[in-house]
UniProtKB/TrEMBL annotation:
Keywords assigned: DNA-binding, Transcription, Transcription regulation
Protein name: TetR family transcriptional regulator
Domain HTH tetR-type: 8-66
DNA-binding span(s): 29-48
Keyword Plastid appears in the UniProt entry: no
Source species of the chain: Mycolicibacterium arabiense
InterPro entries assigned to the protein according to its UniProt record, in alphabetical order: Homeodomain-like_sf, HTH-type_TetR-like_transc_reg, HTH_TetR, Tet_transcr_reg_TetR-rel_C_sf, TetR_SbtR-like_C
GO molecular function: DNA-binding transcription factor activity; transcription cis-regulatory region binding
Length: 179
């Protein structure tokens, strides 16, 4: 049975409010999410019985958006530019991921994060394949290599993010291009 339009709208409002709040210091509180979304706590709990369920939904949405973005960028830009823009979005996702990791227990995070390499791998494979076909990206690097290389995003401290992340992304992208 399809979700009612008002229920779908409320769910989207809750997830967006969680996206905004999860990057803020402190514990993600469901009452704060409901307030930010402009909804009652009962409405929030009808959609997400626990904080972990909400965090999982937020994480799933972020990953799905990154996967869809790869195809969209390839339709609008050259493969190397699409990859550059995709990494910019990946960096923004990494900031949300910091909040996700802090918001859930390690055992729950392991379960949530287990899907990431597969989904992101598909998106990266599409970007890398297009770049190879155009002769602008190396052919000896696969999506797993790029995922491993991009894990630096999980280790950049908040106070150095604005300065360090663009430089590190530029180094990564430079290493992926052909000479």
């Amino acid at each position: 049975m399809a979700e009612r339009s008002d229920a779908a709208r409320n769910r989207a409002l809750i997830i967006e409010a969680a996206r905004e709040l999860i990057t803020e210091p402190g514990e993600l509180k469901l009452s704060a999410v409901a307030k930010r979304a402009g909804l009652g706590q009962g409405t929030l709990y009808r959609h997400f019985a626990t904080r972990e369920e909400l965090v999982r939904a937020l994480y799933d949405r972020e990953i799905d958006e990154l996967v869809a973005l790869a195809d969209r960028l390839l339709g609008e830009h050259s493969p190397d530019e699409a990859l550059r823009r995709w990494f910019t979005h990946l960096a923004a996702y990494a900031r949300v991921k910091f909040g996700v990791i802090a918001a859930v227990e390690a055992s729950v995070w392991h379960d949530i994060g287990a899907q990431t390499p597969g989904k992101l791998g598909e998106a990266l494979t599409a970007l890398l394949t297009a770049g190879r076909a155009d002769g602008v990206l190396r052919d000896d690097v696969d999506s797993r290599d790029v995922i491993l290389l991009s894990w630096f995003l999980a280790h950049v401290e908040e106070e150095e993010w604005a300065e360090r992340t663009p430089r590190l992304l530029a180094v990564l992208l430079d290493g992926l291009t052909t000479r």
